[in-house]
Amino acid sequence: MDCVICGKQVVNENNRLQKKVKDYLRTTSELDVKHLWIKQWKICYDCSELYTNDNLVDNSEVLQKIEEQKQRKKQLGKAKRKQGPVGEARAYYIERYIDYATCKAEENGRYIAKPARLINSQQYDEAYITYVKSSASTAVLIVRDMAEDIDTKGKWIDVRHLEKRFLSHHEGDFSFIIVELFSRKQKPTYPKKMAVETDSEYKNRIAYITWQTATADIHNQRTQGIKGDIYIVLPSLKNEHENMYDKHYITWDSRHHHFKRVRESNQYVNILKPPKWGYDIVATKKINHQQLRYIEKNLFQIISKTHKKSGITLSMFSPQKKKETASKLKKGLKKESN
Q: Would you say which domain of life the source belongs to (predicted)?
């Protein structure tokens, strides 16, 4: 313990400090303040020599020193609690914070090509709610906003097929997308924004009207035997925040026994930024309906190829000449030349 007057560590060297208590008790049965503090290890030997009992009880200078030591001890305790644990314990709790903050950052990641969240889903039919939550809505945005080689102006985009990338745990990671584009023969009629609507609610309503018009128009054109332009799109999911970090200022929360993030602090850790998922368009190709029928007929084999190769190419969607046929053809050409 530290002395309440001078702040030095109380040391009972050669038992001389506690001997004072024993000697005092030989003369009286009750301890005064000074010897009670000696017994409780509150004052050091030097202060016990320097001050009498009356000094400790009535001397304003001594009382002020005692109060200063109380405040100093209180501040040191507060600073120690704020700093938190030290050594291995500190490293352990910092590692726990990093794990927690990293998981939270991953949860807060967002997709660039993602339909707006429905604010009041009860006012929309089940088919539209299902569409918004589906991968098809994401695929439409990828083709419309990122496939620069495909002119989608004045077109409806109908997803004929999309395939999630093999073994990927990301919902929006596609190995390929096949879409059919139809001319917009029906035009949606958009109402004015209502006074009670928020901007998000109005955007939701506009998107819903667009979807209704597109669905009806595509259905009518298919019924009439109209066929649209077919495209294969090979997207590649990418994190635009790859290897980027945020600086988290942290302080020790003594009440809950963990580090927490604060706006200002003298200590910090680097945490991976929440991912921002975008897409690179690796390749696009316009195909005819005969080629589409071949793909649909051999879809299982094509998908199997995408599982075996990490780099997906457009050649996977075309008929492959058998090696035997190719070698026979070469031999026939040689005979003819001879």
A: Bacteria
Q: Do 215 and 300 reside in the same domain of the chain?
A: yes
Q: At what angle do helices 289-297 and 299-308 cross, to 10 degrees?
A: 70
> HSE on the CB side for 43, CA within 13 Å?
22
Same domain, 151 and 35: no
Digit-coded pLDDT (tens) for 135-155: 999 999 999 999 999 999 999
Strand ranges (DSSP E) for 18-123?
110-111
Residues 6+ apart with CB under 8 A from 278: 112, 113, 146, 237, 238, 239, 240
Which two structure tokens, joined as six digits, stand for 338? 């001879």
| 271 and 135 inside one domain | yes
Q: How far is CA 121 from CA 116, 125, 132, 262, in A?
A: 12, 8, 10, 36
pLDDT tens digit string along 4-26?
888 888 887 768 888 888 888 88
Amino acid at 113: A
